[in-house]
Amino acid sequence: MKLAANLSLLYPGLPLAQRMAAAARDGFAGVEILFPYDLEPHELAAMLRDHGLQLVLINTPPGQPGEKGLASLPGREVDFNHALQRALQVCEATQCGMIHAMAGVPAADVAPGACRATLIDNLRQGAVLASRAGVSLTLEALNRADVPGYFYNRPDQVADIIAAVGHDAVRLQFDLYHTQREALDMDAALDSVLPLVRHVQFASPAGRHEPDPTVPAVARALRTLARHGYTGWVGCEYIPAGDTSAGLAWREAYQAVLDADDTP
Length: 264
Prior knowledge:
Strand content: 5-15%
Oligomer: single chain
Number of helices: 9
C-alpha cells in the first residue's frame, strides 16, 4: 500500500509548487489535492511532471461558498454535472484516476428520499462519463462533528448507495479518521465494505494530526486491507502538528505494522 501526501493540508504556508517539491524530497510518489481548480489543468499537469509526482485523488468542486458538494441536492443536478465535468478535465490532463464525488449537505426541509434519489441518479450518469475516461468516482462518509448534516456519515450508508447505483466506476473511499471520529467499530465498519474500497485515508482522531499506526484499531485495519489484497493508495490527509517533514517519523511505524502482518 502506497502513501500519498495530501497537499491541501501538508506543508502549510507554501505555494503548491513548493509543496510538491517538499513531498518529492520526503519520498512521496503520489499526492492528493482536494480542490485543484486555481490552475489550468495543463499547468497543474506540468507542475506534477516537473516534480515526478502522480496525482491520485481530487474532489469535485464543492459548490457555492460553504457548500460541501452537490451530488445529493435536488435541483442542483446541472451544477453537479458541471462540477464533475470540471474534475474530469483535471483528470484528463493529469492522468488522475479518482474523483471524490462530494454528496453535500441537504437543506433540512428536503426529504431524505428525494436526496437519495438525486444522488443515485447523478452518480449513475456520472459513472458513465467517468468510466469512459478511465476514472473512478469515490464516495466518502464524513463524520458529523466535522461536517454536520453531510448526507452520509457511516461507510455502510455509502455501501448502500453504491449498491443502488450498480456501476463498477463508483466505489468507496474509506477514511479511518472519520470512522474513528464517529466512534464506530473499525473492524466491523471495514469488514462490511471491504470489497468496495478503492481509496483509503487516515489521520489521528485527536486534532486530525499525524496518524498513529500503532493504535490497535488502526493497525488491524491496515493489516486487514493488506491481507485482502488492497494495493492502492493510503492518503495522508492530516493537519501537521508542527513541521511536516519532521513529523513524518510515523511512517516507520506504518511500515512496521505492515511488515508484522502474520499472513502465511
